[in-house]
Design brief:
heterodimer, A: elongated, B: alpha/beta, Rossmann fold, Alpha-Beta Plaits, six-stranded mixed sheet, 14 strands, elongated
C-alpha cells in the first residue's frame, strides 16, 4: 500500500520537524558538553594553561574508547542507560540521548584540534600581560580559534543529520524513521526519494549557514 | 630596577631516560631603572629563557628575581599577574590577536587591568598615536606590514604604562630599514617615557644602535656584562669577540690578510682607533718623527655610543731601520707589539690591535 500524497505530506513535515528538533537539541547539548571536554583536554595537555597529566590521559582515553564505536552499535549498547535517563527507549527524546553522548566526544576532539591552531606565542603574549588561565580561554583561545571552530561545528551539524537518520531506523523519530517504516518496509520508492531529498536539503542548508558564518568570522 | 640573583632554569628531559637540560645557569645581573640592556648570544645560549625569567613566564629552578625590590617567587598568582602588568613584552613574531582590531589589541591589556571600555579606548588611541599608527586603529593585524605590526606590539606592551619593556628578538623578523624604524621607536620609549628596556638579540648592530649595556650569554651562562663601548673596545670572552667583530668588521679576515700581504710589499700594522683622540695624534707624530710613510690597506672605524671605535691597518713604507724604530715606539706607547706571527687564539682585542700582521 503506497502513500497517498494528499494525506502523506503532513507526515513528511512532522518527520522533518522531528529531525530538526533532534539535531538542534543534540547540537546545543553536545556543543556545550563537548566544548567543555575539548577545553579541558587542551588546557591540561603538557605545556598547556593548566597542565594535568592525569586529567588529560583519562579524557583522552575516554574519547578514544567511545569514538570508534559505530553509532548504530552505540544506540543499542547505551539503550539501558537511555531508558534510565530518558524513561523510554523509543521516540525522538530516546534518540537524542545516545546522539548527545557520541557527539559530545566528537565535538571534544574537534574543539581540541582547532584550539591547537592558536599560536602558543599569542597565549604567551596574553600571559605576559597578566591574564589568568580562565581569562585566556575566554578572551584569547576561543576568539582566536573561532573561524575553524565554526567550520568544525558545521561538520558536526552535518554528521548529526546523518546520526538522526540512523537513530530513526532503530526507533527514533524523524525522516530516518519515515524512510524506514514507509519507504523501506513498505517498498514505497516515492517516500524513500522524498526522505533522501529532505535530508539532502537539510545538509545543504546546514553547510551553507556554517560557511557564511565562518566567512564572516574569518573576514575572507 | 631588575635584579637576577643566581637564577637557573633546568628543564626535565623529554621522554624516558632523557637528560635534564639546563637553559640558564647561575646568572646574576642587575639592570638599573632607565637603562637599556642588550642580551646577546648564539641561538640556544639561553637568552630568551633568561628574558622570560624576568616576568616569570618561566619560573626559575633556583635563584631569585626581584623587580623594583619585589621577589617574584614570593608572590601568589594574582599578585604575579599584577606585577606582569607593569612589565611589557614584545615578541619576534609580534603575537598580535588576529581576532581583534589594532585598537582592540592595544586595549586588551588595559581591559585586563580593569580599565573601563571607554578609558581603554582613549588610552589605546593615545599609545597608537605615540607609535604613529593612530590611523590604522580600526584595521586588523593581517592588513599591516611587519614593521607596523611590531609597532602595534610595542603599543600593546606600553598600554598599561609599564616601567620595564622586555623585547625578545623584536627586530629579527624585520628587514634592515624597518629594523631601523623599530629601533628608533624603542629609543623614544626609553628617552621620552623613561622605560627600562631589556632586549634579547643575536644582532650586535642592534646593541650598538640602542643599548647602554650589553650582556653576553654562552651555554646558559653570563660570560660578559658591561658598558657597550667598553665591551666593544675590549671584549674579554671569545664569544664576545665574535659578536663585536660582526658589528665592527674592522679587522681583515685570514683571506683578506693574505691578499693584503700580496698587494703591499712593506710591513703591515693594525692600530686601534678609540675615543682616545690623543692616541691618533701620537701615531701621527711617531710616523713623522721616524720618516715613515703609509698607505691605508684596510680600515673599519665607526661610532659606538657616539664615540669612534675600530681599527686601521697601514702598509708602511720607509727604510727598514726607520720602520723598526717606528714600530718600537708604537709598541712602547700603544702597548702594541711588533710580531710577525698571527694573534694567538682567544687573544683579547687589545692584543690583536696595534700589532704588525706581516
Amino acid at each position: 500500500m503506497h502513500a497517498d500524497w494528499h494525506t502523506f505530506w503532513p507526515k513528511v513535515v512532522d518527520a522533518t520537524g522531528e529531525t530538526v528538533y533532534m539535531v538542534l537539541v543534540t547540537l546545543a547539548l553536545s556543543a556545550l558538553l563537548g566544548t567543555g571536554v575539548g577545553l579541558a583536554l587542551h588546557t591540561t595537555r603538557k605545556g598547556g594553561l593548566l597542565p594535568s597529566r592525569l586529567v588529560h590521559t583519562v579524557l583522552n582515553a575516554l574519547i578514544n574508547v567511545i569514538r570508534p564505536v559505530p553509532f548504530i552499535i552505540a544506540i543499542v549498547a547505551l539503550s539501558p542507560v537511555t531508558r534510565s535517563v530518558v524513561g523510554t527507549m523509543i521516540g525522538t527524546d530516546a534518540a537524542v540521548f545516545p546522539m548527545v553522548v557520541v557527539a559530545t566526544f566528537g565535538v571534544a576532539r574537534i574543539v581540541e584540534t582547532n584550539l591547537l591552531t592558536v599560536e602558543p606565542g599569542v597565549i604567551e603574549a596574553a600571559r605576559s600581560m597578566g591574564a589568568g588561565p580562565l581569562r585566556i580561554v575566554v578572551t584569547v583561545l576561543i576568539p582566536e580559534a573561532l573561524g575553524p571552530l565554526v567550520l568544525g561545528f558545521t561538520f558536526v551539524l552535518v554528521a548529526l543529520i546523518d546520526f538522526s537518520a540512523v537513530a530513526g531506523t532503530v526507533g527514533g523519530g524523524g525522516v530516518g524513521n519515515l524512510a524506514m517504516t514507509y519507504g523501506y518496509l513498505r517498498f514505497d520508492t516515492s517516500v524513500m526519494a522524498v526522505s533522501v531529498a529532505v535530508l539532502i536539503v537539510l545538509v545543504q542548508i546546514a553547510q551553507l549557514l556554517g560557511n557564511l558564518l565562518a566567512r564572516k568570522v574569518l573576514r575572507r | 630596577m631588575i635584579e637576577l640573583r643566581d637564577v637557573a632554569k633546568t628543564y626535565p628531559g623529554a621522554g624516558r631516560g632523557a637528560k635534564p637540560f639546563t637553559a640558564v645557569e647561575d646568572v646574576s645581573l642587575t639592570v638599573a631603572a632607565g637603562r637599556v640592556l642588550g642580551i646577546v648570544g648564539h641561538s640556544g645560549a639561553g637568552k630568551s629563557t633568561l628574558l622570560r625569567l624576568v616576568n616569570h613566564l618561566e619560573v626559575p629552578t633556583s635563584g631569585r628575581v626581584l623587580v623594583d625590590g619585589r621577589d617574584l617567587g614570593a608572590l601568589d598568582g594574582r599578585e604575579l599577574r599584577a606585577v606582569r602588568r607593569s612589565i611589557g613584552m614584545v615578541f619576534q613574531q609580534f603575537n598580535l590577536f588576529r581576532s581583534r582590531t589594532v585598537l582592540g589589541n592595544v586595549a586588551y591589556p588595559l581591559r585586563l587591568a580593569g580599565v573601563s571600555r571607554a578609558g581603554a579606548r582613549a588610552r589605546a588611541t593615545e599609545v597608537l598615536r605615540f607609535v604613529g599608527l593612530e590611523e590604522q586603529a580600526r584595521r586588523h593585524p593581517e592588513q599591516l606590514s611587519g614593521g607596523q605590526r611590531q609597532r602595534v606590539g610595542i603599543a600593546r606592551a606600553l598600554a598599561t604604562s609599564p616601567g620595564v619593556l622586555l623585547c625578545d628578538e623584536a627586530t629579527s623578523a624585520l628587514d634592515p630599514h624597518t629594523t631601523g624604524e623599530v629601533l628608533d621607536l624603542l629609543r623614544r620609549v626609553n628617552t621620552e617615557l623613561g622605560v627600562t628596556i631589556v632586549l634579547v638579540t643575536h644582532e650586535m648592530d642592534v646593541v650598538r644602535a640602542l643599548c647602554d649595556e650589553v650582556a653576553v650569554m654562552s651555554g646558559g651562562r653570563l660570560v660578559e656584562h658591561g658598558d657597550v663601548y667598553d665591551v666593544f673596545a675590549r671584549p674579554r670572552h671569545p664569544v664576545t669577540e665574535v659578536f663585536v667583530r660582526s658589528a665592527l668588521r674592522d679587522l681583515p679576515g685570514d683571506a683578506a690578510r693574505e691578499r693584503l700581504r700580496a698587494r703591499h710589499p712593506g710591513r703591515l700594522v693594525t692600530v686601534p682607533v678609540t675615543r682616545d683622540a690623543a692616541a691618533s695624534a701620537r701615531l701621527s707624530r711617531l710616523l713623522r718623527a721616524h720618516g715613515v710613510d703609509f698607505t691605508v690597506a684596510h680600515a673599519g672605524v665607526g661610532e659606538v655610543r657616539g664615540a669612534p671605535l675600530g681599527s686601521v691597518t697601514l702598509a708602511l713604507h720607509g727604510e727598514d731601520a726607520d720602520v723598526d724604530a717606528f714600530l718600537a715606539g708604537l709598541t712602547a706607547r700603544e702597548a702594541a707589539r711588533d710580531a710577525t706571527e698571527d694573534a694567538p687564539h682567544g687573544a683579547t682585542r687589545e692584543e690583536a690591535h696595534g700589532k704588525a700582521v706581516a
